[in-house]
């Protein structure tokens, strides 16, 4: 995902499409509108409006003040998503990746900043 975003940032969709396989480019060009269509655009606009109006910030502040019950529940739910389970299995087969329980590389500590 980061690679795709970086390619778009560096040179737009054209550079991203140049850098991916022809199969992936064909899928983007022929199926992209099915994935990111009007409903998705409307949802993104609503989310942006919530951010701009302060609604999202108010919700997040209230969530923190309440001890993050919904946030923690959603976090746990996402850990059970099939992509996380399969991803962990696949990463376990990749000998070049650090194994579970090993210390993360220096500088990779996630910092959480609460409102």
Description:
- The structure is a single chain.
- This protein is mostly helical and 115 residues long.
- It has 2 domains: 32 residues, no CATH class; 50 residues, no CATH class.
- It contains 6 helices and no strands.
- The longest helix is centred in the first third of the chain and has 18 residues.
- The two termini are 27 Å apart.
- The mean pLDDT is 88.
Which key features would you list for this structure?
single chain, 115 residues, 70% helix
Question: What's the quick description here?
Answer:
This protein has 115 residues and is an all-alpha fold. The protein has helices at residues 2-19, 22-35, 38-53, 55-65, 69-79, 82-92.
> What is the H/E string?
HHHHHH
Could you report the average pLDDT, rounded to the nearest whole number?
88
Number of domains: 2
* Molecular shape: extended
Strand segment tally:
0
Number of discrete helical segments:
6
> Which stretches are poorly predicted, pLDDT < 50 over at least 5 residues?
none
- Amino- and carboxy-terminal Cα gap: 27 Å
Helix content: over 70%
Derived structural class: mainly alpha
- Summarize the biggest pleated sheet: none
| C-alpha-based Rg, rounded | 19 Å
Portion of residues in beta strands equals under 5%
List the topology elements.
Blueprint: H1 2-19, H2 22-35, H3 38-53, H4 55-65, H5 69-79, H6 82-92
């Amino acid at each position: 995902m980061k690679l795709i975003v970086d390619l778009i940032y560096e040179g737009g969709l054209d550079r991203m499409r140049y850098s991916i396989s022809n199969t992936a480019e064909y899928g983007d060009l022929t199926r992209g509108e099915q994935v990111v269509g009007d409903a998705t655009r409307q949802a993104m606009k609503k989310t942006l409006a919530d951010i701009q109006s302060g609604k999202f910030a108010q919700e997040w502040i209230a969530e923190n003040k309440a001890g993050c019950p919904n946030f923690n529940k959603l976090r746990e739910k996402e850990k059970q998503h099939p992509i996380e389970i399969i991803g962990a299995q696949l990463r376990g087969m990749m000998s070049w990746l650090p194994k579970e329980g090993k210390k993360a590389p220096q500088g990779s500590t996630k910092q959480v900043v609460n409102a």
